[in-house]
Amino acid sequence: MRPSAMSSDPSPVLLTTERLHLAMLAPDAAGRVLAYHQVNEEHLGLVSPARPPTFFTLMYWRTRLAQDREDFQHDVGLRLFLLPKDQPLTAAPVIGTVSFTNIRRGPLQACELGYGMDFRYQGKGLMTEALRVACGYAFSAMGLHRIQANHLPENLRSAAVLRKLGFTVEGYARDYLLLNGHWRDHILTALVAPREPPDPVGL
Predict the structure, then answer these.
(1) What is the tens place of the pLDDT at every residue in 134-156?
(2) In what order do the strands lie in the sheet containing 168-179?
(3) Residue whose C-alpha is closest to residue 32's, from 100, 132, 114, 118
(4) Which residues, other chains included, contact 33 with Cβ-Cβ below 8 Å and sequence gap of 6+?
(5) Average pLDDT over residues 157-176
(6) Sign of CA dihedral 24, 28, 34, 39
(7) Ramachandran angles phi, psi of 92, nearest 5°
(8) What is the pLDDT of residues 17-69, one digit of tens each?
(9) Exposed site from 3, 36, 170, 184, fewest CB < 10 Å?
């Protein structure tokens, strides 16, 4: 469950669960990322903001993966791709994503959580497994205190995943996000870092 550096690159993050690797991917993995989005175009498009015209191209994903590295180095975001653990990292297909974006430091120490799963792998508990270790990494290695995650009211699957992980519903936002040309309401949830046990010296 512990994070480690991928040997092929000094900067990425690699997290391991029972069935998955969660990894930052280099630009040369653009084909695998593109394939994931192509097969899930309809599935993910229903809950995604408008995409640029070049979204379904290798050039877009090469550029985007390079930008992901810069975002991580500048402490503004972290995007991880879910890969089956039983296949080599360099060839395993992308089956999902977890991202921490809009990182704010200072007294807030918060971020936004986003995630998606290949429709062919849903219902196996894989996203819960991935998010548990990813959120743990965000709290420990990244030093964040608060992770915010929002979902459509009718997205009961996502609501169940967040509930299992301990996210608490904090509100209901009307016309929160523009999806498929329509402003959609969202349920607002958040998870805060576990409190450290009291220092026995101070007792």
Answers:
(1) 999 999 999 999 999 999 999 99
(2) 14-16, 20-23, 78-84, 96-104, 110-117, 146-151, 182-192, 168-179
(3) 118
(4) 25, 61, 64, 65, 81, 94
(5) 96
(6) negative
(7) -60, 140
(8) 999 999 999 999 999 999 999 999 988 887 788 899 999 999 999 999 999 99
(9) 170
Q: Which two tokens stand for residue 58?
A: 């290798």
Q: Which residue has the tokens 């029972």?
A: 18
Domain 14-149 in CATH 3.40.640.10? The answer is: no
Which amino acid, 176? Y
- Phi/psi of residue 98, nearest 5 degrees: -135, 130
Short-list 104, 103, 59, CA closest to 79: 103
Q: Is it the case that residue 13 has pLDDT exceeding 80?
A: yes
